[in-house]
Design goal:
nucleotidyltransferase; two-stranded antiparallel ribbon; alpha/beta; single chain; 294 residues; 22% strand; globular
Length: 294
């Protein structure tokens, strides 16, 4: 399975802080926002990842992330000229996807929770599509999934005026290769965008859509507003300081998933200088060496 991170858009709801910088490059506590969705794909075992950005932001992403070799991955880049909808990611990325299955994660979505890694790894060999549902207070902002009494999905609507449930669809999706052809058939909605909910409706109609409700132990943040960005930052700060472990540390994920050797992990530390992030990586190496000697 390959992965796509959609990091386009103008971030107008965050103006003025996103006038000069991509929303997905803003800090969420101690690291760039893009590290969090990237770490999710890496947790799933995905090494080939396409970043879709705006034309004027791409150089900044390349400067931050490079070709991915430092974390044992292959990073590629593509441009979304205008924010014409999430479904467009699969037509933009058609050549990159090839004949493979693909996971899409939104660049401003943050996920955390016990069992997250094993949950998403179970979707790698999906036959059809797999999405999630998460209870929210303001479902009108999202794609909304409706369930029957047996918790089977019966409908999906994009930003409905009268939501049929409280369950929003987070920005993490797993598809088989049919998604490319489905995406080509999507027509712009009344908002002028090619909605990912339309693709999910196609899979639902074909009887090939799997919807899992995220448990209470899972946390999801859509950092598209100032309030939600602040909430995510505070969540990461509190959790990291209490547990002394980092969320979204891509080098740590790469090492734990066997993408890189201990030597390559140690070499990656130097790029972070005297930062808190760099100090955390040093602690991991020192603890490993102490354990090996013991």
């Amino acid at each position: 399975m390959k992965g796509i991170i959609l990091a386009g858009g103008s971030g107008t709801r965050l103006y003025p802080i996103t006038i000069a910088v991509s929303k997905q490059l803003l800090p969420v506590y101690d690291k760039p926002m893009i590290y969090y969705p990237l770490s999710v794909l890496m947790l799933a075992g995905i090494k080939d990842i396409l970043f879709i950005t705006t034309p004027h932001d791409q150089d900044a992403f390349k400067k931050l992330l490079g070709d991915g070799s430092h974390v044992g991955c292959n990073f590629e880049y593509a441009v979304q000229e205008e924010p014409k909808g999430l479904a467009e990611a699969f037509t933009i990325g058609q050549k990159f996807i090839g004949n493979d299955k693909v996971a899409l994660v939104l660049g401003d979505n943050i996920f955390h929770g016990n069992g997250l890694g094993s949950l998403i790894r179970s979707k790698i060999d999906i036959d059809g599509a797999s999405i999630f549902a998460y209870p929210v207070k303001d479902p009108k902002r999202y794609g909304v999934v409706e369930f029957d009494t047996n918790k089977k999905a019966v409908s999906i609507e994009e930003k409905p005026e009268k939501p049929k449930s409280k369950y929003a669809v987070p920005g993490l999706y797993f598809y088989d290769n049919r998604v490319v052809e489905f995406a080509k058939q999507v027509e712009p909605s009344a908002r002028g965008e090619k909605e990912i909910s339309t693709i999910n409706q196609m899979y639902l109609a074909a009887g090939k859509l799997e919807v899992g409700v995220m448990t209470r132990g899972m946390s999801w943040f859509d950092t598209g507003t100032v309030e939600s960005l602040d909430d995510a930052t505070e969540f990461i700060r509190v959790l990291q300081n209490r547990q002394s472990t980092m969320i979204g540390c891509i080098e740590e994920v790469a090492w734990e998933r066997g993408f890189i050797t201990k030597e390559k992990f140690a070499a990656a530390i130097s790029r972070y200088g005297k930062s808190k992030y760099g100090d955390y990586l040093k602690i991991i190496v020192n603890d490993y060496n102490a354990g090996a000697e013991g």
